[in-house]
Amino acid sequence: MGVYGYRISSYGKGIAAFGRFNSIYGALGRARVLASGAGVVGPAATAVGIINDYNSMQSGEIGSQRFAYRVTGGLATLGASTYVGAQFGGPWGAVVGAAESLTVSEGEDGYMYWHNKMSENLGNIEKGLNSCTWMPNGWFR
Prior knowledge:
By secondary structure, this protein is mainly alpha-helical. The protein is built from four helices and no strands.
């Protein structure tokens, strides 16, 4: 009787596990259909980004160096995500593309923060030196 009870409970658990697996697998199948259509979005978004950045450069909003950084980052992201997606499957390519895109974007933001702070600090030092009111720590007047 104990063995029979064990078989019934494991059989019941197997049915429940299969039901969960089936619902998850079905969702993944639907996601695969969406992902195949989304595979066109990456190159299209990169092309639109390059066009927008080019227009921003032509209007003077960004310089040629920032344009080059954005284009290089966009193409590198597209290339890496396409390669990883082809080698290991679409979801891994999407993860790599999102991670690299975030890295490129945050790299630009980090550089701009550093550049603005350094410009501000160097301007304050220059202003202090020009007014003869600033002395390095440890110097006496």
